[in-house]
Predict the structure.
Amino acid sequence: MISALLLAAVVGYLLGALPFGWLIARKFGINIFEHGSKNPGATNVKRVLGEKFGKKGKRAGDLAFVLDALKGSAASGWPVLLHGTCTWQMQITGLVFALIGHSFSCWTRFKGGKGVATSAGGLFVLLPFPTLFALVAWNTVFQVSRYVSLASIVAAFVLPAAAWVLDGPVAFAVLATVLGVFVILRHRANITRLCNGTENKFVKKTAV
């Protein structure tokens, strides 16, 4: 079992460490660590590239989100193919280490994103219905406030609450709680800016 969990941890970390946001921004000649919030997550990539390259840049940011989510899905999903006795333990280990890899990537000097997309992708495999509730909450808060950070923080609360209420596997509910806390802690600076009224928001452009 130890060797299986070690394998899941290594594979999960290497998947999570793939710096898609950074690589996509580089294709546009942008070092994402020097622009916007200096974060390689999909939100900053979309904001920075969207401002500089319009719709093409925004689509690139959407691609970064999808790829980051797929990292989490792959990390938590591949152990099912082994049909082993410790599958769910490997799934949890894989997702946790994918999140660590995304947040502290060995390819970008241990800098990374906040883990929202990677968490969502992995948890959609493990807890599809609670994750769906969290995504609805995210979209609702974002549409009302236009703050991605606030939407992510609310979703991080909704996910574990739904996981416990829907009476799924206890181990997965505990994981949802831990990842929710991790995501919120990674948003500490955003929370400060929200309280100070200085947080960036996505503003809809009105037709002239």
